[in-house]
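Exercise: predict the fold of this chain.
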Amino acid sequence: MVSGSAAPEDLAEVLRFIGGNDHFFLNLAMPACKLSLDAARDIPGATMVVAMARNGTDFGIQVSGTGNQWFTGPAQVAEGLFLGDYGPDDANPDIGDSAITETAGIGGFAMATAPAIVRLVGGTVPDALATTRRMHEITLGENPRWSVPVLEFQGVPTGIDVSLVCRTGILPQINTGMAGAVAGTGQVGAGLVTPPAEIFPAALHALAARVPTR
């Protein structure tokens, strides 16, 4: 845009919009994460989660080794900070597509690299550091391209493994905005949420059922 023929006032308006919209990059990050995760789909026996999504009623995951099958449970209400006079009774159960970023290893998984996020979602800076460390316990590896300086530049935890979630009891951590329970209210706060625990054993059971019998 800068090197093109756009009128300066139009360019300035675009840049003001981007600079003033905290969620602008999310619209680029979500499809990028989705595309990268799609490369890991449909590997026989693979236990890696390739999608997480929620619609305000249900929370679902898809796993590489089980194709397009969804494993669902009830969406949870996030715990966090509320805007203005809103409170927990005003929040809808978790909704939105942004959990695809946690599936890829950023968002709540990378809280240690942006500890100031706790001022938006609640908690403390030590909580942010502990969250990223904890997510390493349920992932298959780390992504060196997305490094965490405060953790000696280790990569963000990447590749949620349903077997590790079942073994440790640790659930993926998601940073989320809270939508109002009444349609048209908009965002009432932001906080932290996890998937319903039962969907991971369900996925692991389905994977086991696909193992050929001898």
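Check your answer against the key: The chain is about 30% helix and 25% strand.
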